[in-house]
């Protein structure tokens, strides 16, 4: 017998989806080989979420629910693209999905810490990162933009990654009350 309760309002869906879209994209991106695949699966997932929205139980965690549906969409997408050898097998996708969902709070903390730590970087370092990751520029292109060698830019990225790792680790340690 169908539950006779009112379906959740569509405005709630829009709010929850907007809040968790980035995390959902990251979740999917960890399970598929390319950004294009992640984008495609996110689109399919958003449609599936919308279709299933009337049955959503508002007492449940939206992100976990959405990740469960995204996991199904990843498996469907994988089956469609089964000839691509870059795909993980379904058992590994299952394990990774479970781990991502179980650790979603930690991932949120890391993402928040990353945003904060990026703001603490010197402007030149942020410019290098923006060209590479937001602008999609190759390391060689970044090197040319700054009048540096590719080797120098590779060392710059290694230094920035080390700084970000240390900052994120310290931030999470401090926010979890573990101290330094």
UniProtKB/TrEMBL annotation:
InterPro entries: RNA_pol_sigma-70-like (IPR039425), RNA_pol_sigma-70_dom (IPR014284), RNA_pol_sigma70_ECF_RHOBA (IPR014331), RNA_pol_sigma70_r2 (IPR007627), RNA_pol_sigma70_r4_t2 (IPR013249), RNA_pol_sigma_r2 (IPR013325), RNA_pol_sigma_r3/r4-like (IPR013324), WH-like_DNA-bd_sf (IPR036388). One of its GO terms (molecular function) is sigma factor activity. It comes from the Bacteria. Residues 16-82 form the RNA polymerase sigma-70 region domain. One of its GO terms (biological process) is DNA-templated transcription initiation. Residues 112-164 form the RNA polymerase sigma factor 70 region 4 type domain. Keywords: Sigma factor, Transcription, Transcription regulation. Belongs to the sigma-70 factor family. ECF subfamily. This is RNA polymerase sigma-70 region 2 domain-containing protein.
